[in-house]
Amino acid sequence: MQEQINKIKEIALQEIKEAKDLKILNDVKVKYLGKKGELTQVLRGMGELSPEERPIVGGLVNEVRDEIENKIEEKEEEFKSNEMKEKLEKETIDISLPGTKVKRGSKHPVNRVIEEIEDLFVSMGYDVVEGPELETDEYCFERLNLPKGHPARDMQDSFYITSEYLLRTQTSAVQARTMLEKGGKEPIRMICAGKTYRREDDATHSHQFGQVEGLVIDKKDKNVSLADLKGTLEVFVRKLIGKNCNLRFRPSYFPFTEPSYEVDVSCFKCEGKGCSLCKQTGWIEVLGAGIVHPNVLEMNGYDPKEYGGFAFGTGLDRLAMFKYGIPDMRYLYANDIRFLKQFDRKDEE
Q: Which is more confident, 331 or 236?
C-alpha cells in the first residue's frame, strides 16, 4: 500500500505541474483529494490493515495530502499572478494619447442677470425673497388693489387653473405676502426674481418670462421718497446696462402705486442719438415704478399714515436681451447649446 500511495503522489504532482489553467487544476484536486478521490479511497481501505501498519500508512497519506495541497496552492497563485499581469498589460493607459474633451456647460443668460441683480441689491441691504408660481387671485390681484371686476385686470391675459388659482402674472404677489408676514410693524427692503406667466408669444414677449420686483417700506419719518427710488434705479440700471445710462420718468398708471411711472433709459447703443434699437427716440423703456399705493399698504397690514415706500419691477428677459444684444426673446427658451455656450465669452469681454 505504501508503494500505491507513493505512486499516487508522483502522478498527482506531475499532473499539477502540467495543468494549464485553474479548471484543470481544480479537476486534479477533486481527483486526488475529493470525497471520492484516490487518497480518500486509500484511507477507507485502512480497515483491512493490521494494527501495526495503520499508523504508518495513515501518516504517509496525510504527508502526501499536505504536499499535494501545497503544490495546488502554489499553482493557483501562479495562475492568478499571471492572470493579473496579463490584465494589467491589456488595460494599460497610454498617457501620451490626447484626453477626451469634456463639454463645459454655461449659465443661462437670464440666470446670469438674476445673480448679478441679487448680488447688487444684497450689497445695498435688501433681502432676496421667493414665493409660489401657482398663486391665488387674492394675492395676485386683490391685495394689490385690483378687486374682482377691476378694468386693469384686462391688461393681463392670465392663465387661470381654477376660479381662484392662476399662474402668477407678476412677482408683486410676493410683495403682498412679505408685507403680511411682517405684520405691518417692520421695515421692508426686498427683491423677488422669478418666473411669471401671461398669454403672449412673439419676438419681444413670451407666455413665460422672468421678472424682478423690489419693495421698500419704512416709517414716514424716514422719508422714503421718490428721490430714493430714482437713486436706487440709477444704481441698478447703470450696473446692469451701462454706466453712462440716464433715466427718464414718465407718468403712468399701475393699480398698486400712486404716483406711478414708466422709467426709460437712454439708449446704450446710440447714446441717445437715435437708432433702430430705440426706434430713433434715444430712449428705451425698461421699468415700471412708483410710490406704494395707500390701499395696498392698508390691505396688507401697514398703516398708510405711518408707513410709506416705493416699488419697482422689470422684465429679466428684456434686461438679458439688452445686456447681451439678443435680438429675439424666443432664443432664451430654445435650449440651443450653440446659443447658450457663448455667454462665458461675453461676460469676459
A: 236
